[in-house]
Amino acid sequence: MPLLILLMLLAAGAAGAESATPSLHIGVNYGANADNLPSPTSVATFLATKTTIDRVKLFDANPTFISAFAGTPISLAVSLPNSALPALADKATGLDAARSWIRANLSPYVPATNVTLLLAGNEILLSTDTNLILSLLPAMRRLAQALKAEGLTGVRVTTPHYLGILAPSDGIPSNASFRAGYNTKLFPAMLQFHRDTGSPFMVNPYPYFSYRPETLNYALFRPNSGIYDPATKLNYTSMLDAQMDAIYTAMKKLGYGDVDIAVGEAGWPTQAEPGQIGVGVQEARDFNEGMIRVCSSGKGTPLMPNRTFETYLFSLFDENQKPGPIAERHFGLFNPDFTPVYDLGLLRDGAVQITDGALLHLASSPFRGIQYRKACICSASAALMLWCACGLGPRIKGRKQPLAGCLFGCLAKVNHVEERA
Ligand SMILES: *[C@@H]1O[C@H](CO)[C@@H](O)[C@H](O)[C@H]1NC(C)=O
Ligand SMILES: *[C@@H]1O[C@H](CO)[C@@H](O)[C@H](O)[C@H]1NC(C)=O
Ligand SMILES: *[C@@H]1O[C@H](CO)[C@@H](O)[C@H](O)[C@H]1NC(C)=O
Ligand SMILES: *[C@@H]1O[C@H](CO)[C@@H](O)[C@H](O)[C@H]1NC(C)=O
User: According to the UniProt entry, where is the signal peptide (predicted)?
Assistant: First the structure.
């Protein structure tokens, strides 16, 4: 009997989780600095058919990747390399250079692939190269002009910024402003460009790079005593909220509170240096769940209630060839075989109608890689009717059974269902 009750609780839990996370639309960064990843076409098919991910951001303009998304409902953000920008900024030749780049790199693939954003480099303001920094806004303007001239009117231009564009402060959002210099010389003109062209101001907020052991709960959306902003009388219990509102405050102080904000990257790694506190699968899940709630669910932030932000999770896969600290190689949401590293509710068909004999692909990570002969799948669909399944490995055959037929335990959650041919 206790087992039966446990089964019912688990089934009810699955149902509750499903209704709490309706299919949220969200983007993902697709970096491929790795030697173990599936082909771009299989990635595109997987994302389009098995997940609720509807936008993908690339760090380059690789034609194989862009064309892989042709004919899918997934829209793309495509990036120019940083090194391309100075040539586009040139007053005399920049527009022609921008048009050539677009003719070579976008025109052949659009509109078959729905490219909606063109990103001028990545985190340019982190650079120490003054010439590169000075070329950023002129290059963005030339790209927007060139897109118009080439007839690609559905593509908007922006550039992702690291959070170091904000002046150092005490973490109270109302105190935020852009760094001195940028605050007067760059951002007013750039925000005017965004307003004129209807493109979003894109930031990469990373609580991961700002947390300390004492602020871990604040960074991970876990219960914490919060930070009080006396100027707005608002209480912040998440660092991401505070970072987003800091950006908004800096924009508003310049008179551009109306410009949309997009989140180019944010994420949390599942591995880091040995002994680093606050990194793991549970931490990554907590952060990303919280971030999706803030950015995509319509909840918004204390200063931007009910707003949604075009958001790209970082990242689709672990990238085993990425240089730098261990964490850099461990931000992935999916394994190369498309099983989730942890469940974020981004998969379609979490537990849906299946016909007897359909193949169930199991998702729950505790059981990934284990050879099991029998599993009982918690189905959130048909009231407390569980799916019993028998088989080996992560793909097993399903059969609908009443609760009593599943007494050997509720072992796994369905990732997706492959109907029998
Ligand atoms: C392209 O993607 C955008 C954003 O997801 C969407 O609003 C638009 O309808 C798409 N366009 C086409 C032609 O599918
Ligand atoms: C902020 O919220 C937290 C969590 O709800 C609460 O513990 C704290 O007392 C609040 N602080 C203020 C100043 O309202
Ligand atoms: C932050 O704002 C508060 C008032 O809201 C002010 O007292 C404080 O000096 C500010 N701190 C900084 C570093 O600007
Ligand atoms: C946000 O949505 C809630 C719930 O729908 C509503 O009560 C509130 O007035 C909205 N706030 C704003 C600023 O639109």
Answer: 1-19
- In angstroms, what is the span from residue 310 Cα to ligand 4's centroid? 19
Catalytic residue among 265, 283, 310, 319: 265
Q: Are residue 272 and residue 357 in the same domain, yes or no?
A: no
Ligand 1, residue 55: give the atom nearest the CA.
5
Answer whether residue 338 is part of any domain. no
Q: Is 265 a catalytic residue?
A: yes
114 lines ligand 1 (CB under 6 A): yes
Q: Please check whether residues 292 and 362 belong to one and the same domain.
A: no
Q: Which residue's alpha carbon is at the smallest distance from atom 11 of ligand 1?
A: 114
Give domain status of residue 318, yes or no: yes
Cβ burial of 301 (10 Å; 0-12, 13-18, 19+) is buried
Residues 104 and 197 in one domain: yes
Do the strands 201-204 and 160-162 form a parallel or antiparallel pair, or are they unpaired?
A: parallel
Q: What are the residue ranges in the chain where pLDDT is below 50?
A: 1-23, 349-355, 364-374, 378-385, 405-411, 420-421
Q: Which domain holds residue 370?
A: 1-22+349-421
- Find the radius of gyration of the CA atoms of the chain: 23
Q: What's the CATH number where 29 sits?
A: 3.20.20.80
360, 262: one domain: no
* Atom 13 in ligand 2: residue holding the nearest Cα: 228
And the tokens for 36? 């173990």
Neighbouring-strand partners of residue 114: 75
pTM above 0.90, yes or no: no
Ligand 3 geometric centre to CA of 175 (Å): 6
Q: Does residue 169 lie in a domain region?
A: yes
> Looking at the structure, do residues 74 and 13 belong to the same domain, yes or no?
no
* CA proximity to 23, closest of 344, 284, 333: 344
User: How remote is the CA of residue 229 from the centroid of ligand 2, in Å?
Assistant: 11
How far apart, in whole angstroms, are the C-alpha atoms of residue 412 and residue 377? 5
Q: Please indicate, yes or no, if residue 91 is contained in any of the structural domains.
A: yes
| Angstrom distance (rounded) from CA 115 to CA 55 | 10
Q: Are residues 48 and 111 in the same domain?
A: yes
Q: Is the CB of 199 under 6 A from ligand 1?
A: no
pLDDT tens, residue by residue, 192-250: 999 999 999 999 999 999 999 999 999 999 999 999 999 999 999 999 999 999 999 99
Residue 53 bridge partners (DSSP): 26
